[in-house]
Design goal:
Blueprint lengths: L3 H14 L4 E7 L5 E3 L9 E9 L2 E6 L3 E6 L4 E6 L10 E7 L4 E6 L5 E6 L5 H4 L12 H8 L6 H6 L9 H11 L12 H20 L37 E5 L2 E5 L6 H4 L8
Helix pairs in contact: 1-6, 3-6, 5-6
């Protein structure tokens, strides 16, 4: 599933490709993947005024007062195609045809990705419940520590909870926890204030590096040019057999997700699970 770095990669590319351009036609190939909750005619979307990332959501605003909200989920893709390029029919759900040529193609091979249209200013349910973005200035070591205080839930589950911190998924949660030496089952409330500060710093460092690498492609992710990201070359534990120090990794299930960790490098914080945050 595309996480924050992959979605940010797509948003940045879209800003350079379609911002300020007008949609001539919206071709809906598979109506079950598209829902219209907007008042305006979808064939009169108009000019693209804004493109933003909200957690793992892509939000495209048009001057008609409509916004397209896209969640790629497991295998969704947005691909830019020139007018002369053939369209791959497999998984094609919708096509934004631009007045000056070219199209933005919305693919979802397995059908899980969503393209919904809302009125600008509407409270989109999935977005309205999002927690703070990892790069939000309001997310400080103190505020993060306060969020984690007394929580007995596993730190891995805490990081995956989009209503607390928005944008982190399975891959980056595994990578962040390995880099700070925290067992994924350690309770969120067991981390010391020093470790929380380290968690925030490493979280931002890992996500920034992944954005610089245009995301991680371990299965389906492709950017709008249908090219892979490169952060998979920097993964230290996710889908690996051993960690950089040579220890054999283990894979367990947490919150329904396959979780990779090193029982040696990440054992310390698990042993401190009974301790509390120090303020």
């Amino acid at each position: 599933m595309p996480e924050l770095p992959e979605v940010q990669t797509i948003v940045s590319q879209l800003q350079g490709k379609i911002l300020g351009r007008s949609v001539r036609q919206l071709r809906i190939v598979c109506p079950s993947s598209v829902e219209n909750r907007a008042d305006a005619d979808l064939q009169s979307l108009g000019k693209v005024q804004s493109i933003e990332r909200k957690g793992k959501f892509i939000v495209i605003g048009f001057d008609s007062g409509v916004m397209a909200v896209i969640h790629l989920r497991m295998t969704g893709k947005l691909v830019w195609a020139a007018a002369s390029e053939p369209r791959k029919p497999s998984g094609l759900r919708a096509e934004f045809c631009f007045a000056d040529g070219g199209s933005l193609l919305f693919y979802s091979v397995r059908g899980f990705a969503r393209l919904d249209f809302w009125n600008s200013g509407d409270k989109v349910p999935g977005i309205a419940k999002l927690g703070l973005d990892p790069f939000d200035k309001g997310l400080t070591a103190d505020s993060l520590a306060a969020m984690m205080h007394s929580r007995k839930v596993a730190i891995k589950s805490f990081l995956l909870n989009q209503e607390l911190i928005a944008g982190i998924g399975n891959i980056y949660a595994c990578e962040i926890l390995y880099r700070i030496g925290v067992h994924p089952k350690a309770s969120a409330g067991s981390l010391s204030k020093k470790k929380v500060r380290e968690l925030l710093a490493v979280m931002r460092k890992v996500l920034s590096k992944a954005i610089d690498c245009c995301g991680t492609s371990v299965s389906d992710f492709r950017n709008i040019d249908d090219k892979t990201g490169q952060f998979q070359n920097f993964l230290q534990v996710y889908q690996k057999k051993s960690c950089p120090k040579g220890h054999r990794l283990q894979k367990i299930d947490i919150a329904g997700r396959g979780t990779y960790f090193c029982p040696v490098c990440q054992s310390l914080e698990a042993k401190k699970a009974s301790s509390q945050l120090v303020f």
